[in-house]
Amino acid sequence: MRIDKRGVLTGTWNLSGNQACAEGALAAGCRFLSAYPIPPSIEVVERFTQRAKEVGAVFVQMEDEISVLAAVLGASWTGKKSMTVTSGPGFSNMMEHLGLGVMLETPCVIVDIQRAGPAIGIPTRVGQGDMMQARWGSHGDYEIIALSPSSPQEMFDFTIKAFNLSERYRVPVAVMSDAYVAHLKEKVVIPPAGKIKIKPRRYYKGRKDKYLPFKRDKDFVPRMVDIGAGYRFHVTGLTHDERGYPIMFEECQEHNVHPLVKKIRHYVDKIVEFQEVETDDAEVVIISYGATSRFALKAMEQARKSGMKVGSLKLITVWPFPDKRVAELAKKAKAFVVLEINYGQIVFEVERCSYGNANVAFVSHGEKGIDNIEDLLSTIEQVMKEKKVRKGIIEYRT
Amino acid sequence: MNPIITVFSKGIEKSGIKPSKVSVPSDIPFGSEVVNHLGVDFFHTIRGRAIPFGTGLKLGNPALKVVPFVGDLMTLGGNHFVHAGRRNMELLVICVNNFVYRKIGGQPAPSTPVTFSPYSTFEEPFNIPHLGNSCGAVYTARWTALHTDELANSIAEALNKQGLSVIEVLSPGPNYYTKIEDIESNLINFYYENSVIKNGEDPKNARITPEEKIVVGKFTDKERPTFIDSYNAQLSKVLGDKFTPYGGKNG
Fold it and tell me: pTM above 0.90?
């Protein structure tokens, strides 16, 4: 696919995470943004609308986040790459249409700049409390892809990655950022247009009257067409057959919904990405994602200086979760320390995947200031002293 | 419902618009084969959300004519309806009003006139054309499903209007508890015979009450800048030549 060069602001810039996210979207070819104003996500909209005129993109501010995601799904079916950006309360509103997006297999990107919750929480405080909601928030069975950037550069890169994954697997992809990364200003390098990899939409190219909207390729992903091009298709949020007609029988549930899960699960190894640092000889592996991975690395370096064998596993895709790798590491390492800005979410996944082979300690980060790694370091020290594997999740600080 | 689809098909034909350029986001499950014969692109979305979905379709491809067929318009879709009117989003909203939640047992709806349920409902129902008109819709009309010619003309007119058009269609829906043929033919005749055509009537006088005849007709037909017009006008004003107008005649 030829990239629209107008969207790519090649160069080296000093951008906030939110600004980088908007640039990533424009570079990926996103030409439709819908949002409802909510901190701490506003700068994405500001940046996008400032640049929209140059690339012919459109922005619409809707009446709530329910309609925001509905509009994004609609726009995506017209052939425009579409995105929305929000924070916790808006993300909750979007859950209804997240389900529709999954059922209609509509590519789109949802950026969630997480803040403290539940309910209204603290609009400006950093949080990572929506991680499980991204995976399980909408009713019914589905699989989703969620990425977690830890720097403005990654906000740029992962937004592009999110668009590529959503086009490849025809599933809404969540970029689970947080208020810290979103407002952090750092160097962002935007490569020339030719160096950016863009995954094109997988279009149906057969006869118009033979088009079946949910006829799956071998990889379980059906092909798309643009609306208004004369294919006369029918799609529905009810359980449906290949033609997109509702069929409400048990067999059809299996026929329709099981592939929604399989199309992700069968390609987990291709989708899952993570970064490991010094895990080869590590006795303790810190598992982190998003903002916390910055402090995990800082703690790792300090611990290494004082002679402790500590490594770091940073999740790039949080969903699907890297089950296999965590299980492998559990056999090698004595313990995991999971660092999150919440009261325990991804740590349950780590515990599940360690199969009783390693201790799992949890650190709720951020209460003493986002830069403060005292709790993390003391947890690492304490978990090193454990003689055997304890059941459940260990929290040293009560 | 299927007779309304037939009328809709006639309406599209009369309007001179290619069916392939018409897309229907809906929150009502139609008979899919029927829709297939219509020749439009059809999206069955979630309860009450056809308008925002349609907003995305229209803004994604301004060349489309988007016709949300809505059932849960005044409940789940109420706020979407109000804002579509405020923006004057280019949609033709067809509200199929059968006064109750017929498919799931006949519970009262916000369009149910008082005295329709065994113990009587006591909540004031919405007057849909009046609400549409107040919110800024450029075209409002109400017909029963038996006013086939009038309804087809209205649909054709509204498809060529620039802005939000609202057509309320009074229709008896199927019910699990009665013979479908009985209730459909009796009720639809009842609505038809108890209606009076008053074109150009102020929709605020078109409340549906059991005591009076049902006022049907074309109520509103006015001009207002649409969302895309206003968007282009404002951005051209601020940015001048730097701005290329979005959608509309410039594609």
Answer: yes
